[in-house]
Amino acid sequence: MPTKVETVKMLLGGNWVHSEETFEVRNPQNDELIAYVPSASRQEMLMAIEKADRTFRANELWPTHERIRVLQEVVEYMEENREEFARIIALESSKTIREARGEVKRATQTIQISAEEARRLKGETINFDQNEGSENRVGYFQRFPVGVIGAITPFNDPLNLVAHKIGPAIAAGNAIVLKPASVTPLSALKLAEAFVEAGLPEGYLSVVTGSGREIGDTLVTHPAVKMVSFTGGSKAGESITQKAGTKKLSMELGSNSPVIVMEDADIKNAVQSSVSGAFSAVGQNCIGVQRIYVHKSIYSHFLDAFVQETGSLNVGDKMDECTDVGPLINENEAIRVENWVEEAISQGAQVEIGGKRDGTFYYPTVLTHVPITSRLATEEIFGPVVLIETIESLDEAIDKANDVNYGLQAGIFTNDLNQAFKAIRRMDVGGLMINDSSDYRIDEMPFGGTKGSGIGREGVRYSMEAMTEQKVVCFKLN
């Protein structure tokens, strides 16, 4: 049955509005038209920012209990409409319906955690009398919202990554203007609907849809926007840092995540975890497994098992409950992945399984003998491709794992605590998963990376801290 094509509105300053221009949202699996979405102008983005700024200034003492109430009602709305949220995610993105349901569950938890953390956002007392001559001083610091947050989100987690911007911003008392990815705006608009239904005061949230070239710079550079929170590619992130000026920045910019498998590892667990970590969400995942370094004593066993497990994955219709791997977000991305793999093959890489494209589908691919100078070894593929290489020692594996300009998350499989703690000390990453793949995250933990993987940490509590300013208060007593 053809999907009913909708003409949707964007949320601008608390009001649902059309725009003079629209753009199409299509299902990446079959190019079927799903919706017409407003393509906002620069003037409309300015209106959203200015309304957010006026709203924040007029409600600087927005009570914590009201923020909690709104967030909890959003949770209720999401739970009541979870299948509709999942269907929207699956239609507009690359995710299978099962993966989409998992994302809805996580996004609901993200908003719930935001409600809980709102009541825990506290300052602390300061012992001023630690300095001689300050015995008659007492005080504390308190956290205050920064004001207007500008947020930009990618397509790969079109609901939960939006929840990670809006939930903490509202919990901390900020107003937020969000620009979602143009290929997947419908999930963000559905979440905005939840906030409107929950009674969020007008102006605290705008979801402005359209071209980044048209409205992105306005959001990033406007003086009323006090912080920019961005999740996306490294080049776009670098451009934002150059344009934003003296604003607070939170940047999650991707990775080329390594996994190390030592000789004492549970091979079955390592294989299953790493196959899932490499190919879930068709590899379009910033912490997805891309490089695997396996000790030479178990390399052949591991490789055979990994290839067999990869071959058991079902590639196909993302709305089918049995499908494991769906299409990439568009054919251009599938062609790019294909080109990167063919480039590596021309340099000596060997295909163990996969290596073929069918339209927007690229089959799960395992490569060996990939040159260390190839893009696949050094850059983020953001597709269903994993490289497997033999190593002779943990030191060699760590050196190779660190030898890229990324450091988001990594994994190591070992039952030797000494080896685990050596990896903890030496691996230059924001998170290290022991006996698990790099692709593990809960929404409460601090999340971010080193080097080219970004600036700061997300995770609800840590986002809220970044979205507030500390103000010191000191009383001099008579």
UniProtKB/TrEMBL annotation:
InterPro entries: Ald_DH/histidinol_DH, Ald_DH_C, Ald_DH_N, Aldehyde_DH_dom, ALDH-related_metabolic_enz. Residues 97-124 form a coiled coil. Transmembrane segments: none annotated. It comes from the Bacteria. Residues 16-473 form the Aldehyde dehydrogenase domain. It catalyses: (2S)-3-sulfolactaldehyde + NAD(+) + H2O = (2S)-3-sulfolactate + NADH + 2 H(+). One of its GO terms (molecular function) is lactaldehyde dehydrogenase (NAD+) activity. Its EC number is 1.2.1.97. SUPFAM superfamilies: ALDH-like. It holds the Pfam family Aldedh. Keywords: Coiled coil, Oxidoreductase. Part of the sulfo-TAL (or sulfo-SFT) pathway, a D-sulfoquinovose degradation pathway that produces sulfolactate (SL). Catalyzes the oxidation of 3-sulfolactaldehyde (SLA) to sulfolactate (SL). Belongs to the aldehyde dehydrogenase family. This is 3-sulfolactaldehyde dehydrogenase.
